Amino acid sequence: MNWDSIKTIWNEQKEINKDREDIEVLVNNIKSVNDGFRRSLFWRDVREVGTAFLLVAIFVYLGSSEPFLQKIGAWFNAACCFGVGLFFLWSRIHARRKPRQFPSTVKGALEADLWDLRFQERLLRTVNWWYLLPLGIGLTVWLVTSTVGSSGRFGWLFLIPALLGIAALYYWIYRLNQKAVETDIQPKQNSIISILHQWDE
Questions:
Q1: N or C: which terminus of the chain has fewer CB atoms within 10 Å of its end residue's CB?
Q2: What is the residue range of 168's domain?
Q3: CA separation for the pair 26, 94 (Å, rounded)
Q4: pLDDT of residue 1
Q5: What is the per-residue burial (b if ≥16 Cβ within 10 Å, else e) of 165-181?
Q6: How far apart are CA 74 and CA 38, in angstroms?
Q7: In the chain, how many domains are there?
Q8: Is 77 exposed, middle or buried (0-12, 13-18, 19+ CB in 10 A)?
Q9: Nearest-CA neighbor of 13 among 27, 34, 33, 31?
Q10: In this predicted model, which residue has the larger pLDDT, 139 or 41?
């Protein structure tokens, strides 16, 4: 998202008559600037939902041929992946529905983008609760039930390093999301807020 372009559009807005045609042109320009950002969100959600439902299919298949205990662990993990996929679908629908309530003006387009950015920030700030925690619990249950149901000591020797590795990976994913908020989402929000403050002056 090129916020310098939005600032340029904002400066142009001050120099023209605010009739309907001028506003429509500016709204279209702002929408074209934001297309890249929205496309990146769309493909991110496609990848995440596709991965979640693919994991559901994999763990349902793995559980179908396992003894009862391992079956429960695999299917519980599949249910957790399914829940995360559904949450992504809900967030996508919710994010697309809300901005439509803003008016089709330059200011309305900016307010819609600001709402969208704030929604994305909330998702990334709470990624540990709706994404990492359910997937972590599901994967842990599957690993533990698989280890308990297996014969020999190799499984137990593998379990602790596997859990520590998962914890380290999830912590890295959490920090990566928080960095995205600080270096990408928040600067864009601040740019829009600055423009909106100028609008009201």
A1: C
A2: 3-200
A3: 26
A4: 46
A5: ebeeebeeeeeebeeeb
A6: 35
A7: 1
A8: buried
A9: 27
A10: 139
